[in-house]
Amino acid sequence: MRSETQGSKPLPVADGDFYMLARTLSKEDNDLRLKVREFMEREVQPVINGYWERDEFPFELLPKVKALGIAGLPFEGYGCPGRSTMLMGILMMEIARVDASFSTFFGVHTGLAMGSIHVCGSEEQKQRWLPPMARMDMIGSFGLTEPAVGSGTGGGLTTTCRRDGDGWILNGQKKWIGNATWGDLTVIWARDVADDQVKGFVVENKKNPGFHVEKILHKMALRVVQNGLITLTDCRVPEADRLQKANSFRDTAQVLRQSRAAVAWESVGCATGAYEHALRYAQKREQFGRPIAGFQLVQDLLSRMLGNITSTQAMCHRLSQMQDEGIMRDEHASMAKSVCTVRMRETVGWAREVLGANGILLDEHIGRFVADAEALYSYEGTREMNTLIVGKAITGFSAFV
């Protein structure tokens, strides 16, 4: 397949799949990948810059997202597709290749909210919540981070829960909670004042008078994601809505392990989108009488970008194999998350450099990728926190304070 021409010679299409990762998929899986790619290119790409600039979410696209049938993709039963985590990772990459905000919205719903219920919920809770979430009739969010507690969530949550008769009372705040301003339920993680352990609760946002959320404004990244500041004021939750298998932060960490693997794929997608836009630009942008794609320094930048993308694709591919085999550990997911986001940040910066001053224009898309990369770099555990997880595993010593 070829794109524009240079004289009579057709130019290569901008394609970040240099080592032909798509060929490792079955026909059925690749067909779904192409279906998702077509949706992102035809429906999301033409409108996303406007929504990003206005700090809004394209709600009119939700019916078409539902029709893709990919929510809860790797989960078996409960109305979920039951496909591989490998395919889920590749779809996250495809979505982020067009827009990281859209992949974040989807990842929060499928990976964090549905993942929390799938990993930590009882059978009754899975039967109650996962089917409508798989249909995307209910949209979920994930409330772990707090205004004053980010990296220290493992031992320093200030949101509390206490048993009160046949229910629980939650008090505190959660910050940066994607989908919370308009979604239907939020998984809230809180510290039990009785035993000082972290527990999880499913709070149905619109039905609980103790749950209040306000939209976070003035963001410079992931502007399409509607992040909320949640305030819980004597928020009563029945025991039936407490995640029955979430009794310590170790249980929370099981969810984070899965989501960090997904964010690694997402960051590869973000880098890929920036690279492909930069390559197409370089093929048509002329300086000194010829396209800048023909200059050595530009080719060097593009080759470096593609090297980053290809190496992180390979890392994520192996990580997903390990995940599907049931042998992926925390340190494996943490290494991928930290390495892939560093390489992404480097890659989108080089893409901006290829475009020169035009790289900061939203019209050229690159500026959106550069800004959104900053959020992916930080959420689901900063680079430093993830390296400490790896460091503990390889040295036998914990450097956490």
Automatic annotation (TrEMBL):
Entry annotated with the keyword Translocase: no
Cofactor(s) in the UniProt record: FAD
Residues annotated as domain Acyl-CoA dehydrogenase/oxidase N-terminal: 27-136
InterPro entries on file: ACX4-like, Acyl-CoA_Oxase/DH_mid-dom, Acyl-CoA_Oxase/DH_mid-dom_sf, AcylCo_DH-like_C, AcylCo_DH/oxidase_C, AcylCoA_DH/ox_N, AcylCoA_DH/ox_N_sf, AcylCoA_DH/oxidase_NM_dom_sf
Entry-linked SUPFAM superfamilies: Acyl-CoA dehydrogenase C-terminal domain-like (SSF47203), Acyl-CoA dehydrogenase NM domain-like (SSF56645)
Span of domain Acyl-CoA dehydrogenase/oxidase C-terminal: 253-394
Gene Ontology BP term (one): fatty acid beta-oxidation
Keywords in alphabetical order: FAD, Flavoprotein
The Acyl-CoA oxidase/dehydrogenase middle domain, residue ranges: 141-235
Region forming the signal peptide: none
Keyword Flavoprotein set for record: yes
Gene Ontology terms for molecular function: acyl-CoA dehydrogenase activity; flavin adenine dinucleotide binding
Family as reported in the entry's similarity comment: Belongs to the acyl-CoA dehydrogenase family.
Protein name: Acyl-CoA dehydrogenase family protein
High-level lineage: Bacteria, Pseudomonadati, Pseudomonadota, Betaproteobacteria, Burkholderiales
